[in-house]
Amino acid sequence: MNAALAFDTLLALLLLWSAWQALSTPKLDRAVIMFIVFGLLLTLVWSRLDAPDIALAEAALGAGLTGTLLLDALAAFGQTGQGAGSTGFMTTIRRFPTILVLLVLLAALLAALSNLPLPTVNLPAMVAQQMPDSGVSHPVTAVLLNFRGYDTLLEVAVLMLALLGILTVGLPVERPLLSRNLLVPILARYAVPLMTLAAIYLLWAGSHRPGGAFQAAAVLAAGVVLLNLAQVQPRWIPGQHWIRQLISAGFLLFLCIAALLLMLNGGLLHYPPDQAGLLILLIESGLTVSLAINLAAFYLLRSDRPEPLPNQEDTP
Amino acid sequence: MTELLPNPLVWLILLPLGWAALAFWLGPGRGRILALSGITLQLLAALSLAADILHHGTVTHLVGGWQEPLGILLVSDGLSAVMLLLTQAVTLPVAIYACQYLNRENRRWFWPLTGFLLAGMNALYLSGDLFNLYVTLELIGLAAVGLVAVGGRSEQVAAALRYLLASLAGSGCFLLGVALLYGCYGTVSSRLLAELINVPTPPAVWLAAVLICAGLFLKTALFPLHFWLPPAHGGAPAPISALLSALVVKASFYVLLRLWLGPFAGFIAPLAWLPALLGSLAILWGSWQAIRADRLKMLVAYSTVAQLGYLFLVFPLFGTGSMALQVGVLQAVAHGLAKAAMFLAAGLLIKAGGSERVAGVSHAANQLPVTLFAFALAGISLMGLPPSGGFLAKWLLIDAALAAGQVWIAVVAISGGLLASVYVFRVLLLAFRDTEEGDRPRPQPVAAGMEWTAFTLAVAGVGLGLAAMPLFRLLEGVGR
Amino acid sequence: MSSGLLFAVVGCLLFVMGLGGIILLDHLLRRILAFNLLGSGIFLVLVGLAQRSGRPDPVPQAMVLTGIVVSVAATALALALARRHQAAGGNTGQTDRTSPEERHD
To answer: How many domains does chain B contain in total?
Structure first.
């Protein structure tokens, strides 16, 4: 067992430990903190797996933004996770079969994993072969924005959908910060311009290095959230139209380019090879702005009504 | 017809994405005209696509021009065309109904949500790539959850939460299955996988199939994984319940069919008794709960649980040279039309009568004859009485089951029809009874246009039984 | 055992933990945490299996990027619903599954 594998094993054990802690620790705030630790450990794992793009996204989105949203929700739930926790609906009698089934599933998974056939299709070689025609020189960006760009189109729609759902359900009320931390405004003043620069760099670098629209958007969103925490940027209210318009603008740009290419080239998202790089950069720029606002809106969008529950009519 | 609208395949996906995003841009409550014109164009595109397929066979489109397995393939054969037609054809009347039915608060984000829901469903029916299918399933799931939460009452929020968690667990299982398949074969293209998977199947592929099917069973609310459906469909506003029961649950069923007859066809047949058994239990349990239900929309929602069971009865009948696929699809289409009509009618009865309870139907019945007639026609299809689409589906099912020697399936089908008649007649008899003395809420007026949309759907459901030949022609040569 | 396969095994464990958490845990916030663990587990299996022979594969990496974005979206929606449920007086320990069938109000 060489050193690399030993390190990986240690990392794996820490990962599993933090995950278990997140699920089982009785205090809710500790659970969320352990989840953030899990996210940061996972970032390390992605680096070990030669996946720097995922590591960037996991740090910014998985640990960063999700952690922020969870901590914010924690404040709404109250610190204690007790309540009716101990007398749940799943009585002991019903728990056992479920745990049994899950253990059988785990055993089946491990057995399957020990007996995998070797794949016959060599997709990485195909990617490398076609990459000169894709307009970018980083394989993950080529797959994400060109070869499988259709998935990306749908995924941007998923993000917009989540925001629509949140708007439908109702926004939380603005909560004043309980403590004034002098460090945060200073941090914000220095960090946010740097983060903006980093985001622009990530966007541009994505064509030949790890990076791209999603990572850039995540960093920008984090900067906006930091400004809000430093009380420099007030909360957003639904009445501000520019939020909706900028979010839909990036998606509509992507869609229009797709439709134009369909009508001119006869193929959905069929980039002409010599303009592919330019088109991809254009799409990514639009996406960076609108995804950043979309992600930040998950945290920053608050209700402009004084009471948290709007009066609902009773008709179904 | 291709000259009029080239690539109808792609426009079926781009159009709803476009008008949904534009409706979002415009703001809360806006987007009605965009939506109605968009859905009409989509219906025309679906008809054009169906005509293409009748003349030229399967239509495909390589996204980005990249060959599989590098790129994603969009493919439409007769089965996809039928589901696409059903989706657009049901959504149009429901959308017209929703214009007048929903109050201002409920209508705030209804159009963008519905647009994305449609985009997700159309994209699902056209997808030939397993990971792309996962993304479309998530698109549909989140849109449906958003729609369930419209209205904002606490039961609806609870129902939406339950639905979301169940949906995420389901798509999680699906994605793990896809991950295992990629690990074994290096591709997620369903066409290539169908060629590569052959006996003897490695255990990882078995496990992947089990996981994928489990996830899809959960999304199609197959007993006993149906727990999320009644509160979600029974609590939402009527047009939303119609979309959910008629269309959304059919999407995951379609994926199951595709995989069962495609990549999994070589090895999964021995397991076919499981969905059939669970389907039978669904029919019995769902019908029983519908008979006992106190609220009208819960009755209709439990009826959905029962009727979905019929879809799973066809699985043991594949591969025997029978019309099992045609039966399953016909049942799905007939149920879609009938259930949409029933929910729309129920919504009107509740709105006019002022009461959500089944007993409250009597208040509004004499005021809304068209609506009641629509409800009755829909009920006829659900019961399986001639000459409706439901009758044709059940008759062919019984025929195929007896031919394959699976008598128990025929027995279950007949019992299901009898049970359905109990809860349908329960409503109809109450409708024709005079109310007792005591507080009778004043009937509220209901716009006539809404009644006719419900009626149109119900008539279509019955007409399907008389004019099913085009459907069968489209389905020729699909699957075994 | 390569590191790819090792982390794929870890991914399976996380998947089962996450699934168990969604089904068995009571508090809504914990179920959302469990869902995120479920997702991370699946992503580890996806990339770990594809890279078990040691060479990096950009296609599952792109898929995982897509998956992370979808996870964040779903988490945000779930949190908004849970927060609203809590504010409406619903007990966060009871996203009951049995009561709709028992309750025939």
So the answer is: 1
The interface predicted TM-score of the complex, written ipTM, equals 0.92
Structure tokens of C90?
A: 């619903």
Please answer yes or no on whether A168 and B149 come within 8 Å at the CB atom. Answer: yes
The pTM of the whole model exceeds 0.90: yes
Domain spans, chain C: 3-93
Query: B294 vs C105: CB contact, 8 Å cut-off?
Result: yes
- CA atoms of B288 and B306, how far apart (whole Å): 9
How far apart are the C-alpha atoms of B53 and B8, rounded to whole Å?
Answer: 11
List the domain range (segments joined by +) for residue B286: 273-480
Residue B1 in any domain: the answer is no
Q: Of B54, B40, B53, B52, whose CA–CA distance to B12 is shortest?
A: B40
- CA-closest candidate to residue A243, choices A168, A155, A306, A160: A160
CATH 1.10.287.3510 fits C3-93, yes or no: yes
Q: Tokens 């680096």, residue?
A: A47
Residues of C in contact with A316 (CB under 8 A): none
Whether residue B375 lies inside any domain: the answer is yes
In a domain, B236, yes or no: no
Write out the two tokens for A267.
């193929």
CA B218 to chain centre: 14
The answer to whether B250 and B125 have CB atoms below 8 angstroms apart is no
Tell me which residue of A179, A191, A181, A190 sits closest to A222, measured CA to CA: A191
Within 8 A of A110 by CB-CB distance, chain C residues are 9, 12
pLDDT in tens, C34-75: 999 999 999 999 999 998 887 899 999 999 999 999 999 999
Q: Can you read off the two tokens belonging to residue A298?
A: 């998950």
A201 pLDDT higher than 70: yes
> Cβ contact (<8 Å) for A76 and C86?
yes
Residue B186 located in a structural domain: no
In this prediction, residues A216-233 reach a mean pLDDT of 88
**Four-residue CA torsion sign, B393, B395, B401, B403:** negative
